[in-house]
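hey so u asked for the seq, here:
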Amino acid sequence: MQDKTANLIGAQPPHPVAVVVYDGVALMELGVACDIFGGDATAAGRMPLYRLAVCGTGPSVSTDAGFAIQVPDRLDALRDAQTVIVPPTDRPGQVPAAVLDALRQARARDCRLVSLCTGAFVLAEAGLLDGHTATTHWAECADLARRYPRVTVDPRVLYTDEPGLL
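ran it, structure tokens below
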């Protein structure tokens, strides 16, 4: 007997996901996002579950490991994304204004935004966490609350989940 659920899942187009990168991007979290949403993740061995774009403002960005990586897609890839992943950076105050604007535009069209660890600083810098509850790495919660007083920081949780924000 054939599994009807597998046929339905496999017939769905891949969910478009964009990972936004910028100078100082954390290599580990970038790798995790690419591993989860890229590659060979398929539904019942059929269609890919995700269509991944790694995007930024230029052809390359520096990493927190001290070397540069190529950026295959530009920020216009965010227009098609239904989920945007915001990895941490060791320079959240230096994220280009174009990236912050692209994140605001994604949010305005109800795109799901997912920050990993201190990626919350990038969302806060864009003003997207104002009036919301957020968290980050436990060692950075006090700094997030101090730098962005319009964000309610909850250091007791691993993640927060509000409509459109995660």
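The first strand starts at residue 15 and ends at 20. Helices lie at 4-11, 27-37, 97-108, 120-125, 141-147.
lmk if thats what u needed
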